[in-house]
Write a structure and sequence with these properties.
single chain; about 180 residues; mainly alpha; about 0% strand; ABC_BtuC-like; transmembrane; membrane; transmembrane helix
Length: about 180
């Protein structure tokens, strides 16, 4: 990443390296929104078609291959979709926010969900909630929107860890025989 920033910095023309790190969600153009919608449709279609195979691939690639699934092709498809998402979002919201929005909602959903489908839905909902609430707070207090969104997501993640610990302690007290 450092070499990329170095080459971009020495390239003639205006460039703000901070926009690639932190982005500015408030400067998203109409074309960017259309690209995001198109990419969403592609990703939802691929996941809808290959859902079971993708879940199997993510949890146990060797078993999936032994079941006759072409794991190499499926793995490359998954990597390409992930790369497309990251490249498009880096342009819009910056590297730091992309990493936060790819990991924090999924981590929170993982702490709260009982299955992979529920985790996917919860992560999507959490991500949308973080963005909307972060934009509202940043507008109200005149703060950088990306930073506020990430701070709200981080606070919610820490809260979910606390809830997860309470849930585990409650389970330990009742024990598996109490069911």
């Amino acid at each position: 990443m450092s070499i990329g920033f170095l080459f971009i910095a020495i390239t003639p023309g205006y460039f703000d390296p901070m926009s690639y790190l932190f982005g500015n969600i408030l400067l998203i153009s109409k074309e960017d929104v259309y690209f995001v919608i198109a990419l969403d449709l592609v990703i939802l279609s691929v996941v809808g078609i290959f859902y079971n195979k993708l879940v199997a691939l993510c949890f146990d690639e060797e078993y999936t291959h032994l079941r006759g699934v072409h794991t190499r092709w499926l793995y490359l498809l998954l990597l390409c979709l992930t790369a497309l998402t990251i490249v498009l979002l880096v342009r819009i919201v910056g590297i730091i926010m992309v990493i936060a929005l790819l990991t924090l909602p999924a981590a929170i959903a993982g702490n709260l969900a009982s299955g992979i489908r529920q985790m996917m839905v919860l992560a999507t909902v959490f991500s949308a909630l973080f963005i909307v609430s972060g934009l509202g707070v940043s507008f109200t207090f005149d703060l950088p929107s990306g930073s506020v969104i990430i701070l709200i997501a981080t606070a919610c993640y820490l809260l979910s860890l606390g809830l997860g610990v309470k849930h585990l302690r409650k389970q330990e007290k009742t024990g598996p025989s109490a069911k």
